[in-house]
Amino acid sequence: MSNSNLFLYIGKPIKNEYGRIIGKVASFALTPSGKFDAVFVEFGDGEFTKQPMENLKFNGAEVTFISKIKNQACLLCDQIPLIWRKDQALKELNDKRKIAPELYQELHNSFTNVLTQLKKDAQIIVEESAIEIERCQEEISSLSWAIANLEIEHEIGKVDEENYKIAFALLQETLKRATSEKTDFELTKSKVSSVLLGDSQDVTQKTKTYAEQVSVAPKLPEPPMVVYVKEIAKAGT
Questions:
Q1: How does strand 62-65 pair with strand 13-16?
Q2: Domain 3-65 maps to which CATH number in 2.30.30.240, 3.40.50.1370, 1.10.3210.10, 3.90.1720.10?
Q3: Claim: this prediction has a pTM higher than 0.85
Q4: How far is residue 170's CA from residue 127's CA, in Å, rounded to a whole number?
């Protein structure tokens, strides 16, 4: 995009991958050569931060904030199997005496150090994903209670039909987003955990599957159906 096009996004709302508005574009940071280097974002809670360009996607009138956890997870699911395969190839070359022992040891130590750091980073992603899953579950539980209370108040006539429909639609949409977000983080946690465990399956295919899955918004599950009994049967009937 040209500089003028990106500057038109200043003041535009930023949504996360699930359609929730989380802030707005405040400004951009450019290199001396005029290349866009970062985005200044004002989040909904008033926090003002500088985000790398790759954390945001500009598409038409939409600005989408890409999850840092998902970005890092995707990179780690590429890098860990790649370094592992290189180290295995190195070992095979050493076994076939196609590489000097001292060079093998130097390269092996290098791969081991990189792999150790990547695994530490991956463990952090697993832990952060678990925290996000718990947050989403708490939100889902709260929304379910809100829906239940809305149904009760509507049933006894304290909420009129028009306001009931507005509130119900809002709660249902928010519930779908929270459920979708939880599913995404569960997928991320599962894939990174699998890479950490060193599953013997084809790691290339696993990485491809992960990238394909996180790049497409998951199908939103239907929200839970709440059923209420209008009358309580008398004892003994």
A1: parallel
A2: 2.30.30.240
A3: no
A4: 31
